[in-house]
Design a protein that fits this description.
- This protein has a single domain, classed as Gcn5-related N-acetyltransferase (GNAT) (Aminopeptidase), CATH 3.40.630.
- About 30% of the residues lie in helices and about 35% in strands.
- The chain is built from six helices and eight strands; from the N terminus they run H-E-E-H-H-E-E-E-H-E-H-E-E-H.
- It has an eight-stranded mixed beta sheet with strand order 1-2-3-4-5-6-8-7, with helices on both faces.
- Helix 2 crosses helix 3.
- It is globular, with a radius of gyration of 16 Å.
């Protein structure tokens, strides 16, 4: 068991609110599917697949089991309020890059939950030896953009009319990235590498 695995389950305090974070397993499949279906459809547009479909959720669990997805779940008083995933494709031209995806229930926003999930996912990426992390979101998701930029992610690309919602309306997708290798080197220089 790696130090990364020993970190979870983890209890965090967000301004007096206890948040429990743990790794997602196959046993969580139905709960995450129900959670995804409670989110506004617009919140899901940046994902490559629609996770409100059982077959897509089953594929997600298979990818967790084969190690290509590393997901974290956040619960408040036992209720799922957020999840994240670090996705990597070791068979691609970019096995050193992970794609970070974060979803937070509307009631958990503006409280630091998204930031916490991003930070914990960053730790997962470091543990996987990834050199770069990317994140995508629609350009109108101002809170998500602020959270990612606040943690050092930089805008890298804008894909115009890249996704289409259920009503057929097209939306732009912004891609942000973070150089994990450079960040880790800076932390080592300051003697803080063990903090991550």
């Amino acid at each position: 068991m790696s130090a990364q695995d020993q970190r979870y389950p983890l209890r965090a305090d967000l301004n007096g609110i206890a948040i429990d974070i743990d790794r997602m397993t196959a046993a969580d499949e139905q709960e995450v599917l129900i959670f995804a279906r409670t989110l506004p459809p617009h919140d899901l547009l940046f994902l490559r697949r629609d996770i409100t479909h059982p077959k897509v959720m089953q594929a997600w669990v298979r990818q967790i089991e084969d190690g290509s997805i590393h997901s974290l779940l956040a619960r408040r008083e036992g209720q799922l309020v957020g999840c994240s995933a670090v996705v990597r494709d070791e068979m691609s031209w970019s096995p050193h890059v992970g794609d970070l995806r974060v979803l937070v229930a509307p009631g958990g926003r503006a409280q630091g939950l998204g930031r916490l999930l991003i930070q914990e996912s960053f730790r997962v990426a470091l543990g996987l030896g990834l050199e770069k992390i990317t994140a995508q979101m629609t350009v109108d998701q101002k809170g998500a953009i602020a959270a990612f930029e606040g943690l050092g992610f930089k805008p890298e690309a804008l894909l115009r009319d890249h996704v289409r919602d259920g009503a057929g309306q097209k939306h732009d997708i912004a891609t942000f990235s973070h150089d994990v290798t450079q960040f880790h080197a800076q932390m080592e220089a300051y003697g803080l590498a063990d903090a991550f």
